[in-house]
Amino acid sequence: MKNHSAEIDVRKYIKQIINSKGLKQKSVAIKAGYTEQQFSNLLNGRKVFKVDDVLRIANALEVTPNDLFG
């Protein structure tokens, strides 16, 4: 059985960073190279995060990948 708690935490921290910076999910999605739907799927657990996703989102949010893990 896989433990998805790390993935859940990544989604939580991404949402917190977006809110703390006063950004819109749509603008982060576009900057990271996703459609709104693709980004929504990542943030809501309908798509599994991959290393590339973490890097793209961290870059779009101007944070380190480690920041996305708390």
Keywords:
70 residues; mainly alpha; 434 Repressor (Amino-terminal Domain); 0% strand
Question: From the structure provided, what is the oligomeric state, counting identical versus distinct chains?
Answer: single chain
What is the SS-derived class?
mainly alpha
What's the story with the biggest beta sheet? none
Mean pLDDT: 91
Number of alpha- plus pi-helical segments? 4
Distance between the termini: 24 Å
List the secondary-structure elements in sequence, H or E: HHHH
The portion of residues forming beta strands comes to under 5%
Strand elements, count: 0
Low-confidence segments, given as residue ranges, are none
CATH class label: Mainly Alpha
State the helicity in percent bands: 55-70%
CATH topology assignment: 434 Repressor (Amino-terminal Domain)
**Which radius of gyration do the C-alpha atoms yield?**
11 Å
Shape-level CATH architecture: Orthogonal Bundle
Task: Describe the structure in your own words.
With 70 residues, this protein is mainly alpha-helical. The protein has a single domain (5-22, 29-69), classed as 434 Repressor (Amino-terminal Domain) (Orthogonal Bundle), CATH 1.10.260. It contains four helices and no strands. Helix 2 crosses helix 3 (36-43) and helix 2 packs across helix 4. The termini are far apart. The relative contact order is 0.20.
Task: Describe the structure concisely for a colleague.
Helix content is 61%, strand content 0%.
List the helices and strands and how they pair.
Layout: H1 5-20, H2 25-32, H3 36-43, H4 51-61
Helix pairs in contact: 2-3, 2-4
